[in-house]
Amino acid sequence: MSLELWTSVDRYVSDTLVPPDEILEHALAANAAADLPAIDVSPAQGRLLEIIAKIHGARRILEVGTLGGYSTIWLARALPAGGKVVTLELEPKYAEVAANNLAHAGLANKIDLRIGPAIDSLDRLIAEDTEPFDLTFIDADKQSNRDYFERACTLSRPGSVIIVDNVVRDGKLVDPAADDAGTMGSRALHELLTADPSVTATTIQTVGAKGYDGFTIAVINS
Ligand code: SAH
Ligand code: DHB
Ligand code: MG
What we know:
Bound molecules: S-adenosyl-L-homocysteine, 3,4-dihydroxybenzoic acid, magnesium ion
Helix content: 40-55%
C-alpha cells in the first residue's frame, strides 16, 4: 500500500462524493497565490467535518488554526441559521487571506476570526465567559494540542465534541525514536485523555492524499 494508491482512492472519493465547488477551489487557489502552505484538510476530510457538525447539530463551532479558511468554510456551511464559527489564527497574513476567502464564500457574517496566539485567544474567550461551543476543531501547532484541548474543554458543555487533527503523524505517535514537538504534543494529548474520566475519546487513523495520519475525536461526558 502506498501514498499513490491512497491518493487515487481519495481522488475517487472526492470525484464521486464531493461535487466540484467554485468557492472551495477559489479558496485553495487564493491560498496558493499568497504562498500559504498547502496543509488544509482534504476535500473528503472537510466533508467529514461537515457531516460531524451536522449530525451533532452544532450551532457554535470553535476552530484553532484557520490558515486560509478552507476547513472553516466546511464547518461554517454546516451551521444552522444564526450559527457561528469562532476561528483562531496566529499569522495576520494567513488571517487576511482567510477573511477574503470567507467573504467570497458569503460566510463573513457567520465567522469571528481572531488573530494572535491561540492560547491567548482561548484564554480571552474563557475570560469573556462566552457561550459553550458545541464542536471544536483543533488544527494549529501540534505541540500545544494538550493546552488547546484543556481550554476547549473549559469552553465546552456536556455533549460537546472536540476533534484534533494530525495526531498519528505517519505512525510517529508510537515510534519510540520519534521525539519531535508535534509527536510529543500528540502523546501528551493521549496521556491527558487516559487520565481524564470526563471525556470519552478515540483516535481514527486515516490515509489519503495527505498521507498517513489521524484524528482524535472526543465527547464531553454528562
Ligand atoms: N485548519 C486549516 C489548516 C490549519 S494549518 C485547514 O484545514 O484549512 C495550521 C494553522 O495553525 C496555520 O495557519 C498556523 O499559522 C496556525 N498556528 C500555528 N501556531 C499557532 C498558534 N500558536 N496560534 C494560532 N494559530 C497557530
Ligand atoms: C501540517 C499541519 C496540518 O494541520 C496538517 O494537516 C498537515 C501538516 C504541518 O504543520 O506540517
Ligand atoms: Mg491539520
